[in-house]
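Record format v2
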Amino acid sequence: MTSHCKDGHGGVKGASGSLWCCLNALCSSQGLASEEAALLDEIVSSPLRLEKRAVLYEQEAPFDSLYAVCTGCLKQETAVNETETLLTSFWLPGDLIGCDAIGLGRYPATVSALETATVCRLPFARLEALTQRLPRLRRQLQCTTSRARHEERIILHQLLSRTAEARLACFLLVVSDCFHRRGYSPTHFRLPVSRNDIGSYLGLTQETVGRTLATYQSQRLLRVNGREYQLLDLAQLERLASSTGRRQKRP
Amino acid sequence: MTSHCKDGHGGVKGASGSLWCCLNALCSSQGLASEEAALLDEIVSSPLRLEKRAVLYEQEAPFDSLYAVCTGCLKQETAVNETETLLTSFWLPGDLIGCDAIGLGRYPATVSALETATVCRLPFARLEALTQRLPRLRRQLQCTTSRARHEERIILHQLLSRTAEARLACFLLVVSDCFHRRGYSPTHFRLPVSRNDIGSYLGLTQETVGRTLATYQSQRLLRVNGREYQLLDLAQLERLASSTGRRQKRP
DNA sequence: CGTCCCTTTGATTTACTTCAAGCTCTGTGG
DNA sequence: CCACAGAGCTTGAAGTAAATCAAAGGGACG
């Protein structure tokens, strides 16, 4: 996992690295014709570099662009009160940031880099103009975002009635799956997220996150070293993740 | 709360009861011009009656229509396994059902009536054709659904790290607000939802839901009689709902 | 080298689930 | 009309998962 962007990959000949990331983000790797890709390439910015803790955009800023993650990891936080901010998303390579702002006119959250990251900017106005001419692209984009929303919804509802064990397993599997779909190892990855951030995403304390990871480790389900994760028993993790409810009711 | 639909209301002269409900659902009561309303009226079906436990549509059925709730209450459930189904939404008068299917091609959940309900069907193809000609309507529809999605997201993330007390307060306030926005009493309403269903929506057991309601009642925050709710102290409920975390960390 | 942040580990407390029993409604068939 | 079944709701007692509080160890970075 040294380089996230892959040149000349994705079935579109001659696609630049940044284009490849955008295609991924927009279409979940379902191919577009070369001509369509070429048109898309024209409106994609060259990769933008964000240092650790740099802010991609602030909550309430006017919406004008989507961003495709090329490398690195970002987090999204929404301030709901003066006192409370919610960590509502992590963004990994291949993810499309900003979809939740479409229709709102403003970004509903602040997005910042957890480590050095590169993203490609997609000016939304130009993207929309493009989808007018390319109905296939429009459909793919809509399908991708709808599916993502639905999945997130389901996961959040599942988490609500689950133990810390199941929540964390669920989370790790989502991350694993995300890496997998983008062509990286589903079992060995670096996740540059503090225990505290994982905790606030899952509604747990950092201590519980740490302890649960330790438990997993002692059960040989995975190995953790700081923020390096190696999943050893995906099958068992899935079983844990989908174990209904807090404890098993007996019939 | 005997009649939910209001005739000749909403600033659009001569709007039928069903049209009024759809306007509400589509535009959050922000007025459209009379001509626009008239066009919308043409594609809205007359109210459809659903008996208790009747299914509006099944999960996986092909998507073709949105539905605006005129009266009654419905619930939405998604089956994720053979073993597990999640209760992901309740639908009250003025809500627009089916938006989560846009872009997916299929309904991602089963929706059924909790009590006798009436809904208006909005064939999506005709609605889309209409929005081609009425950009204002398109924008309003998009804005309404985006806002709803964002709010749901935020609420779910809030619930994740809250106690049963806060979850229930949050839930009651959302319901109250929904009724309020549609012109009903925010403090006195019938919510024909079993404790069990509230529990699975909030990730709690029915016992906890019942006990928490009892606690509220003993604190004079509300009165419950079966499924009739009377909120007595909205301010305190809001305080409870937004009390961060499980317990208050002391600085 | 020392400071700060992140993480781990331990002890205690508490909120919620589980299990169980009884109670209130509603509808149904004798 | 009453008996009775069944679902929904309530209440109690016990157990457990996770939060809280506290303290100490490890890295990164100035």
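Residues 17-155 of chain A form a domain with the Jelly Rolls fold (CATH 2.60.120.10).
The first helix of chain A runs from residue 17 to 27.
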